[in-house]
Amino acid sequence: MLSKFIKAGIKIKTEADQYSLKNKLKVKAEVNIFPTENKGVDVKIPVGILGATGSVGQQFIHLLRDHPFFEITALAASERSAGKTYREAVTWFLSTPMPDFVENMTVHACEPNLPCRIVFSGLDASVAGPIETAFAREGYTVISNARNHRFDEDVPLVIPEVNSNHLELTKHQPYGKGCIITNPNCSTIGLTLAIKPLVDAFGVEALHVVTFQALSGAGYPGVSSLDIIDNVIPYISGEEEKIQKETKKILGTLEDNHIQPASIKVSAQCNRVAVIDGHLECVSIKLKEIASEADIIEAWRSFTAKPQELALPTAPLKPIHYFTDPAYPQPKLHRNLDKGMAVSIGRLQKCPVLDYKFVLLSHNTIRGAAGTAILIGEMMNSEF
Rounded to whole angstroms, what are the CA distances from 326 to 218, 285, 323, 348, 380? Predict the structure, then answer.
């Protein structure tokens, strides 16, 4: 099915960019850059990455390298990196090699003249807000990992398996053909995906979560080795507030042009630990209806949602995996389950304070960042 982004036409901002992208597409297939119908030619959707040299930007590149309908045509970063090749500008620290196709791409400044209509933003929150707004005003679809716009009244905060209907909010934004969509904080994503089946089946009145968050969540170069080796840091600035507030918006109800937050009570405590990737969270919940352990496990194991129904390429086959082994889940063993997009859960047991408690694990830079943003893009392409 031809994407709505292609059907709408791709407006290239400069003659140089137009010539470059036309030639790029012509090498791949003889098509016009403004196709109005699919003539049997597989045309990929050009996308750009803002903050391409950072940790989340690198995950975007890694996850998009063989994407069936997105193609990276622009990389953008700070003025310090602009004008350099990507190889010159980046310190690549993923365990997988840098894809060949990006090595010699020229890094652009983060200005809204890129040869694409969709941008995935891995920008730091210190600069993301005005840059993302500028792109949206120029007609770009901005899918952001940054916190800056998460609580704008008309900006959806989305986990596709949980609240894809909130994407309707983009129709009320003041950007014309452009829009801004955000994904939540990395810890919020794993937590909210884990409790969504329980909210649907039994209702959740309250929860308390203690997180043990990986070093990669702090970005590169991250936490000093002298601070984290032989240590746990029981404070991550702003993290607890994000979890407590974001969970309510995500689980809230779409009403006209805003979200009515859910009434669930959420308390969070956050810790940084010496693990590279994978956030572990210990959760206690109070349910609205009586449920057995077997009922809860069945709710998790049977849970699927729109991304699985549509067979979106980044969607995990099973969003949630439950383990009966009392020593599971573990970051080293389970963070990459289902391409890093699944949430692993274990140790469900009665809680003497609330009703039940359990442990969950999610990959913080894939499911908790770039992977969810890409899944949002796939959902927009398929449904809107």
Answer: 29, 19, 8, 9, 39
Q: Which two tokens stand for residue 384?
A: 């809107």
Q: What is the DSSP string of 79-134?
A: TTTTTSBHHHH----SSSPPPHHHHTPBEEES-S--S-SEEEE---HHHHHHHHHH
Q: CA-to-CA distance for 290 and 377, rounded, in angstroms? A: 37
Our answer to whether residue 258 is catalytic in this structure is: no
Long-range contacts of 348-356 (CB under 8 A, 24+ apart): 348/293, 348/296, 348/297, 348/322, 349/293, 350/293, 351/284, 351/285, 353/284, 354/206, 354/207, 354/208, 354/284, 354/285, 354/286, 355/285, 355/286, 355/287, 356/284, 356/285, 356/287, 356/293, 356/296
| Placement of tokens 């949630």 in the chain | 320
Half-sphere exposure of 356 (CA within 13 A, CB side): 22
Catalytic pick among 62, 149, 166, 279:
279
Is 186 noted as a catalytic residue in this protein? yes
Blockwise average pLDDT, block size 10, the chain, 384 residues: 42 38 35 33 88 96 97 98 98 94 98 97 97 98 98 98 97 96 98 99 99 90 86 97 99 94 98 97 99 99 98 98 99 98 99 98 98 98 84
Q: Which of 384, 381, 364, 306 is nearest to 145 (CA)?
A: 364
Q: Domain residue spans in the chain? A: 4-149, 186-363
Element of type H or E holding 174: none
CATH number of 4-149: 3.40.50.720
CATH of 186-363, one of 3.40.30.10, 3.30.360.10, 3.30.70.260, 3.40.50.2000: 3.30.360.10
DSSP 43-83: PPEEEEEETTTSHHHHHHHHHHTT-SSEEEEEEEE-TTTTT
166, 186, 334, 363: the active-site residue: 186
How far apart are alpha carbons 277 and 365 in whole angstroms? 7
End-to-end CA distance of the chain: 13
pTM over 0.70: yes
Strand (E) or helix (H) holding 294 = helix 293-301
- Three-state secondary-structure class, residue 255: strand
